[in-house]
Structure formats: structure tokens, C-alpha cells
């Protein structure tokens, strides 16, 4: 009998790639996947090969943080937990980010702990749970972040943060607190399942999730879309460390499939990409897009930052235990630009 895996939040950018990767795996998994509403069900199923649809069971979970998840975890061997709000334009950090992230993770682990079939749980955390803004964030020449690092931000600081970066700060703290809660749960409850966390920085790649429109483009894809949608200035703060979404999905699967891979945090990194490098590349490889590059791109393309001068990310554990080999920035950026151009052509893109 084939193994059943659970993917939470399958309508998300990374989660839909997880679904594709799980279905393509030689392990022939059956996939149960949660989504907040069945409104995207038909579009989701239409994106799958007919022979794969039979191996997919979709179930509605209105709120991972408070719903009864007994049905979701029943008979499942592996769980990939991706549901978590990734947005920075929020009104209330506690309500919009901190509580859904932390309570969503804890509620899932609580139900997983009651289900004897669950052997392994992989939680999608983030480099956000690792970066230390108080020490300078990436502005730490010579510093190399590892999985020993933890974002020191607290619930109270995130809840009370103000100013233009408050949403980003609260998001990062939500990821730190959710991941910390997961490791603390394992330490305290000693469940029969093992835990691993995947900590990617910015995740880029084709947007294949259902129901995508310009207004709900996932946050990391929107950051790249800002480079080719005719802005009147260069976007500030494209966060340089990145990982291709297919590598992120592969890392999750390898965590459960490879021996000795569970029980660890995995920092992923395919390299560094600045907005200046990106506009130069796009101008050279997509001449027809030059008119859609942000105003000032010519100057930006001539002033490429030295990305070896910012803090680096140590992804050696992912290379060692998950046997990862990451896609580079040119491949990743090209995949994104090709995809975003196609998205723009969809009739309902601006709906
Ligand atoms: P998406 O926004 O595409 O997906 C987020 C998922 O979480 C969706 O399924 C969404 O459901 C669900 N969700 C959003 N808000 C809530 C909420 N309040 N309560 C319950 N569910 C919610 O983001 P990504 O795919 O990019 O992110 C997936 C995971 O990866 C997240 O945990 C994120 O923190 C993490 N991550 C992402 C990175 C990136 O650059 N993309 C980098 C590092 C980590 P619905 O579709 O119904 O809105």
C-alpha cells in the first residue's frame, strides 16, 4: 500500500509545488491536502494530470489554528506543514501573523501526536526565523548565518512594532515563534514522530498555484514582479538570499525520504540576487521587457552591489543530509520572468 502524506495549505505557492513533487516522486504517494475553502478545488484539480488526481484527496480546513484536524491527519505517515500567512501589509500583527503562525503549527502537532500513523513532520519555517535584525540583519560583512542562529525578536516586540518595517519584522518573528514552538513541543511532548524544519530565504519560481491574480500574487513572486511591471522607481529591498521553489519542495521530500535527515533545521540557499543584478539580466535577456523595467534601471544595472560583502547563509547541512544541489540565480530568475509574462496574459489577471 502506498504511503499517505498530508500537505497543509495546498493553494499556496510553495505548497502547490510540494503537491507536484510528491505526486512525481517514485514513492507513488497518496496525498491528502488541506485548503481553506473549496472555491479553488476545480482549478486545482484541473492543474493535475488525470492519473494523478486519483491519488489526491482535498479536505477543507477553515483554520489550521483552531479546526479539528483529526480527519486531516488520519492514516498519514508524513506531514508537510506549509500553512502560514506570508504578508507584510497587515493591520494587527498578533491577529494577522503571530497567532495564525504559532497556533496553526501547535494545533497541527497536537493532532499529529494523537495519530499513531504519523512518523515524520516537516514544518516550513524560514530564514526569517534565523536572521538577527538587531545585529544588523544582512548588513554583517563576514558573518555566516547557520542553523544555530535564532531571530531574537519576541512576541511583544512584534506585536508592538510600528513604522514601515513593522509588518516585515512581525512576519519574521511569527516564523521564529512558530518554529520554536514546534521544537519545544517535540522536546516537551516527546511524540512518536520526528520533526525537521526547512528554512529557506526568499523563494522564487513559477507560480502554479490555483486562483492566482495580480492582487493576490504571493509575496515573494510579487517582489520579482515589481521589477517588470513598469514601476516609476527601483523597488527598495529585494532581499538577496534566495532559493528556487522546486529546490524548496525537493528539500521537504528529501527530509522524509533520506536516512538521518529528520531532527534538524535546514537552511537553504541558492545564492544571492539583488534587484540591480536582476534588472541588468532582464534587460539583456528580455529586450522587449526593457520598457517595463523600473525607472532608473539603467543606472542600477551599472551599480551592481558586491553581494559577498553582506552576511552569507550556510546551507551545508542541506547539501550533506538532503543531498541538495541548488539552482542558481540566473536559472531561477529566468523561470520567474517567463512565468510572470505568461501570467500577465491570462484574461482574469487584473480581475
Ligand atoms: P502563500 O501566501 O502562497 O501561501 C500561504 C498558505 O498559507 C496558503 O495556503 C494560505 O491559504 C495559507 N494561509 C495564509 N494565511 C493564513 C491564515 N491566516 N490562516 C491559515 N492559513 C493561512 O505563501 P508561500 O507559499 O510563499 O509560503 C508558504 C510557507 O513558506 C509559509 O509558511 C511561509 O512563511 C514559508 N516561506 C515562504 C517563503 C517565500 O519566499 N515564499 C520564504 C520562506 C518561508 P490561502 O491560499 O487560502 O490564502
UniProtKB/TrEMBL annotation:
<feature type="signal peptide">
    <location>
        <begin position="1"/>
        <end position="24"/>
    </location>
</feature>
<protein>
    <submittedName>
        <fullName>Methylglyoxal reductase (NADPH)</fullName>
        <ecNumber>1.1.1.283</ecNumber>
    </submittedName>
</protein>
<feature type="domain" description="NAD-dependent epimerase/dehydratase">
    <location>
        <begin position="5"/>
        <end position="265"/>
    </location>
</feature>
<comment type="similarity">
    <text>Belongs to the NAD(P)-dependent epimerase/dehydratase family. Dihydroflavonol-4-reductase subfamily.</text>
</comment>
<dbReference type="Pfam" id="PF01370">
    <property type="entry name" value="Epimerase"/>
</dbReference>
<dbReference type="InterPro" id="IPR001509">
    <property type="entry name" value="Epimerase_deHydtase"/>
</dbReference>
<keyword id="KW-0560">Oxidoreductase</keyword>
<dbReference type="InterPro" id="IPR050425">
    <property type="entry name" value="NAD(P)_dehydrat-like"/>
</dbReference>
<dbReference type="InterPro" id="IPR036291">
    <property type="entry name" value="NAD(P)-bd_dom_sf"/>
</dbReference>
<keyword id="KW-0732">Signal</keyword>
<dbReference type="GO" id="GO:0043892">
    <property type="term" value="F:methylglyoxal reductase (NADPH) activity"/>
</dbReference>
Amino acid at each position: 500500500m502506498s504511503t499517505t502524506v498530508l500537505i497543509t495549505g495546498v493553494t499556496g505557492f510553495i505548497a502547490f509545488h510540494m503537491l507536484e513533487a510528491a505526486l512525481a516522486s517514485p514513492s507513488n504517494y497518496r496525498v491528502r491536502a488541506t485548503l481553506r475553502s473549496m472555491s479553488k478545488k476545480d482549478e486545482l484539480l484541473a492543474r493535475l494530470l488525470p492519473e494523478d488526481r486519483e491519488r489526491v484527496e482535498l479536505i477543507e480546513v477553515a483554520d489550521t489554528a483552531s479546526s479539528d484536524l483529526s480527519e486531516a491527519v488520519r492514516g498519514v505517515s508524513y506531514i508537510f506543514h506549509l500553512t502560514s500567512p506570508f504578508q507584510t501589509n497587515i493591520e494587527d500583527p498578533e491577529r494577522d501573523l503571530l497567532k495564525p503562525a504559532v497556533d496553526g503549527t501547535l494545533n497541527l502537532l497536537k493532532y499529529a501526536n494523537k495519530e499513531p500513523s504519523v512518523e515524520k513532520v516537516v514544518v516550513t519555517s524560514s530564514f526569517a526565523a534565523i536572521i538577527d535584525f538587531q545585529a544588523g540583519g544582512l548588513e554583517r560583512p563576514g558573518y555566516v548565518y547557520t542553523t544555530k542562529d535564532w531571530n531574537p525578536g519576541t512576541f511583544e516586540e512584534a506585536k508592538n512594532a510600528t513604522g514601515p518595517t513593522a509588518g516585515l519584522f512581525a512576519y519574521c518573528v511569527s516564523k521564529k515563534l512558530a518554529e520554536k514552538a514546534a521544537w519545544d513541543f517535540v522536546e516537551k511532548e516527546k511524540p512518536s514522530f520526528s520533526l525537521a524544519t526547512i528554512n529557506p530565504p526568499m523563494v522564487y519560481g513559477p507560480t502554479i498555484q490555483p486562483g492566482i491574480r495580480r492582487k493576490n500574487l504571493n509575496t515573494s513572486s510579487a517582489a520579482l514582479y515589481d521589477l517588470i511591471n513598469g514601476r516609476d522607481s527601483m523597488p527598495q529591498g529585494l532581499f538577496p538570499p534566495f532559493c528556487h521553489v522546486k529546490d524548496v519542495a525537493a528539500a521537504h521530500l528529501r527530509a522524509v525520504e533520506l536516512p538521518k535527515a529528520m531532527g534538524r533545521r535546514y537552511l537553504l540557499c541558492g545564492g544571492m540576487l539583488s534587484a540591480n543584478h536582476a534588472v541588468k539580466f532582464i534587460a539583456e535577456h528580455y529586450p522587449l521587457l526593457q520598457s517595463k523595467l523600473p525607472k532608473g534601471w539603467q543606472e542600477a544595472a551599472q551599480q551592481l552591489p558586491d553581494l559577498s560583502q553582506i552576511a552569507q547563509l550556510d546551507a551545508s547541512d542541506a547539501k550533506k543530509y538532503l543531498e541538495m544541489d541548488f539552482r542558481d540565480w540566473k536559472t531561477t530568475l529566468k523561470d520567474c520572468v517567463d512565468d510572470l509574462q505568461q501570467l500577465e496574459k491570462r484574461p482574469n489577471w487584473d480581475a
